[in-house]
Amino acid sequence: MYKTVTAVDDLSFTVHDGEIFGLVGPNGAGKTTTLKCICGVALPTQGLVLVDGINLQKEEQKAKELLAFVPETPNPYEILTVSEHLKFISMLYSVDNPEPKIEHLLNAFELDGKKDNLVNSLSKGMKQKLTICCALVHDPHVLLLDEPLIGIDPRGARTLKDILIERAAQGDSVIISSHMLYLVEELCHRILIIDDGKKIAEGTLQEIRKKALASSDASLEEVFLKITEEPL
Known about the structure:
Elements: E1 20-24, H1 31-39, E2 50-51, E3 54-55, H2 60-64, E4 67-70, H3 82-92, H4 99-108, H5 124-136, E5 142-146, H6 154-169, E6 173-177, H7 181-187, E7 190-195, E8 198-203, H8 205-211, H9 220-229
């Protein structure tokens, strides 16, 4: 709750191991607030957040060791270089022998040629790629991404999608919040639609199609427009 505004209202859901979970809704629906509550950036006034069974409020550090959050607007430290960012995050999470992992991520996201550059020399897309690399360097069990593809070039987008699919196959949990409904439809096993901070629908795309009384081949965009505009 922000002063008199309830941003997220009695919202409850579970993301399973090995699942890519989509969080969608109109502007101001409470998506970013939900992600911030899960990762501990914002504190819920009510309710409980469990990360792999760990109570975030009671064992914050232990829970956060399992998490990584990629915000919509990257805000890396301007006084550090690209490689220094990754080394710094590796130190925070006590990553053993981080250099091979750092090199792999820089190559994967085509940042190896910028590794000695200060952040203020990077484009927005490169800053977003750096933020993603920082989130991945400690191999989080739960990965939260808020509009992760904004500003990223097609090769970088393909790399990220492949990594998310691979991590889910390894048993990690991924939550993606995005207005790019084609991305959510392409990647996510289950989807949660919220509006005004409340759950509107949750399930597989086929299950949400049924709730929206949409055709069996309706796209997520069609279902989303129908379910958020018409009372069910």
